[in-house]
Design brief:
The complex is a heterodimer.
Chain A (H helix, E strand, L loop, with lengths): L2 E2 L6 E5 L28 H12 L5 E5 L9 H8 L5 E5 L6 H13 L4 E6 L5 H8 L3 H14 L5 E5 L7 H14 L6 E5 L6 H5 L11 H4 L12 E5 L2 E3 L11 E3 L9 E2 L3 H9 L32
Parallel strand pairs in A: 2-3, 2-8, 3-4, 4-5, 5-6, 6-7
Antiparallel strand pairs in A: 1-11, 8-9, 9-10
Helix pairs in contact in A: 1-2, 2-3
Chain B lengths: L1 E3 L8 E8 L6 H14 L3 E4 L13 H7 L3 E2 L3 H7 L12 H16 L3 H8 L4 E6 L2 E6 L17 H10 L4 E4 L6 E4 L4 E4 L14 E9 L4 E8 L3 H10 L4 H9 L11 H6 L3
Parallel strand pairs in B: 2-3, 3-4, 6-7, 7-9
Antiparallel strand pairs in B: 1-11, 2-10, 5-6, 8-9, 10-11
The chains are: A alpha/beta, B alpha/beta.
């Protein structure tokens, strides 16, 4: 089974709200919900301790995920503190954001040299396409979150899990942009994600098939920097794991400290196959680690640039 | 002129270098920059790669570079065009960005002569200089990856300190992102030298190069120099070559219209689109 070395700790992730979420999405790869407390919250002190260790490794940026990170009562303080040390990205469903939090975060980012990125999950451009996956009323609540972030000058990256045929990407992207502009987001940023056939998604569609694994042959002449495990680790309340996708797999827990986690990892999971296919799906486009998921087309349907914010 | 990292202005300049990246076939801006550089006087001129892309008539930049003894580092575009690869290896992920990148790449590959492609193939991926006791590393994206984006707002001090340490460098100079910046660190200095090929998404039509000066007390001064050039003539030639209107718009407006999705939020907010 192929093994991947961590070449450098580019990104340090935090499972900051554990598996606790206010939503119960049908495709969640770690089955987060209001009742799933199998992973717990991280405190500001936990985050500070791990970041202090990671800076010794020359870490480049920080990501916060869950669950819903903003259920963690220390989330705003955590982000404000982190922005003094590096770039921060928080993955949210956008349904619980409060103006007072965004006021603080806006000021923290203004005082920082680093970007604060919001990645906001919406899985369809209408209630009819989104809500069957994410729950009744979630489309309207998430779009309200988008509008609120825009009011505070943030440019959230809308992340949509591809629950449609890949061939429809450009059409779906175009429809997404139209809807987002109608909600006041004049230059929408969108990131498409493949589904991961684990957790709740395994029940919604299917699990990984036996042949869906990465082999040594597949890695020959393959740029391993496209695999998230070659440049990331994630801190949970149980320890430091190899990547944000596999935290429920016992072999993903590589130790109790950042330094213990800097070891090779055998990529023998189905999810590793998805990472291999699409590149480091977890990181932002600005990090430049993700493989292109859509071939360039001769005449893309939406080549018009987005209007500027006013 | 934007001056940063000034340490002691009373000391004298021992060495002065001009550095630029991303010519992107903009031979008019290249000529204007070199004229400005000659007037100031420098010890050497370095281009950190990406000679083609975006602009018209890619072969026109090569004689200008050779006649002015510009020393060139290989960028991802030079590797791709030189070796006739399928795409520019720019590192975009968005379908629209990739669409325009491919138009630019196909045009540049088709219009670059074999002797110039051979020159691109032979370029070094990095250049190391030692000036007095100072070690300088010149690269395209980062010392570890030609197409790594080192944006000002997504690159921590810790990472830059790490690069300076493992590369045993006092100064690392790179480009690739298309937007200049620099940062003084405990171990040394990181400089993104900017690009000559297109304006940097600030509503101004000028482009940028960088002067790097070593002073007698071993401190460095970084000066980012704006370059005005005949951008209307470039826009006209791009139209004649049937390059996308979106590219022409950027040249005449100073705002990026493509390659937008790769920008971090701080850099994106500074733009119009």
């Amino acid at each position: 089974m192929p093994s991947v070395n961590l070449t450098h700790l580019d990104e340090l992730w935090f499972q900051v709200s554990g598996t606790h979420c206010n939503l119960t999405c049908d495709h969640c790869f770690i089955s987060c919900s209001p009742h799933n407390r199998s992973f717990g919250y991280l405190s500001l002190s936990d985050v500070q301790s791990s970041i202090a260790q990671a800076t010794q490794e020359g870490v480049r940026e920080f990501y916060f995920t869950g669950g819903e990170p903003f259920l963690n009562p220390e989330m705003v303080d955590i982000l404000c503190w982190t922005l003094q040390h590096g770039p921060a990205t928080v993955l949210t469903n956008g349904t619980v954001l409060k103006e007072e939090w965004l006021t603080k975060l806006q000021e923290a980012e203004r005082q920082s040299r680093y970007s604060l990125e919001f990645r906001l999950s919406i899985d369809g451009f209408s209630p009819e396409t989104n809500d069957p996956i994410r729950g009744d009323g979630t489309f309207d609540r998430a779009m309200a979150g988008v509008s609120l972030l825009c009011e505070f000058g943030f440019l959230p990256i809308i992340t949509a899990t591809r629950i449609w045929d890949e061939e429809s990407d450009l059409e779906v992207l175009s429809q997404f942009k139209t809807v987002l502009k109608a909600h006041g987001y004049s230059r929408p940023r969108i990131k498409l994600l493949p589904t991961l056939q684990i957790g709740a998604e395994e029940n919604r569609t299917r699990g990984y098939l036996q042949h869906e694994v990465v082999t040594d042959t597949m890695l020959s002449d393959f740029d391993q920097h496209n695999l998230v495990c070659s440049h990331s680790r994630i801190v949970t309340d149980r320890g430091v794991h190899v990547c944000p996708i596999l935290i429920e797999s016992p072999d993903s827990n590589l130790g109790q400290s950042i330094s213990e986690s800097l070891v090779p990892f055998e990529i023998n999971h189905g999810a590793c196959y998805t990472c291999y296919q699409y590149g480091s799906i977890c990181t932002n486009a600005s990090s430049g680690n993700t493989l292109s998921t859509t071939e360039p087309t001769v005449n893309p349907p939406d080549t018009a640039r987005d209007d500027g914010d006013t | 002129m934007v001056i940063h990292s000034v340490t002691n202005r009373n000391t004298k300049i021992k060495s002065r270098f001009a550095l630029f990246g991303g010519v992107y076939s903009n031979y008019l801006a290249l000529e204007a920059a070199l004229q400005d550089i000659r007037q100031r006087g420098v010890d050497a001129i370095y281009c950190l790669g990406d000679l083609g892309a975006f602009g018209p008539h890619p072969d026109r930049v090569f004689p200008i570079l050779h006649n002015n003894h510009v020393i060139v580092v290989q960028g991802n575009y030079d590797d791709s065009v030189g070796n006739a690869l399928n795409d520019c290896q720019c590192g975009y992920t968005d379908p629209r960005d990739n669409h325009f990148a491919q138009i630019s790449y196909d045009y540049t590959l088709q219009n670059t002569s074999e002797p110039n492609r051979k020159f691109m193939r032979g370029l070094p991926p990095e250049i190391r200089l030692t000036v007095d006791d100072q070690n300088i590393l010149l690269c395209h994206g980062s010392p570890r990856r030609t197409n790594e984006f080192l944006w000002e707002s997504t690159t921590s001090d810790y990472y830059l300190e790490h690069l300076l340490e493992v590369q045993r460098a006092d100064v690392i100079a790179a480009t690739h992102t298309g937007i200049k910046w620099n940062r003084k660190l405990d171990r040394g200095l990181f400089v993104n030298v900017g690009v000559l090929g297109r304006p940097e998404n600030d509503g101004s039509t000028n482009v940028w190069y960088t002067l790097l000066e070593l002073r007698t007390d071993s401190s460095w001064t970084v000066s980012h120099i704006p370059v005005a050039y005949n951008h209307t003539a470039l826009a006209r030639e791009m139209q004649q070559e049937k390059l996308p209107d979106e590219f022409v718009d950027t040249v005449v407006s100073g705002w990026w219209t493509t390659c937008l999705e790769i920008l971090p939020s701080k850099e994106r907010r500074r733009g119009k689109h």
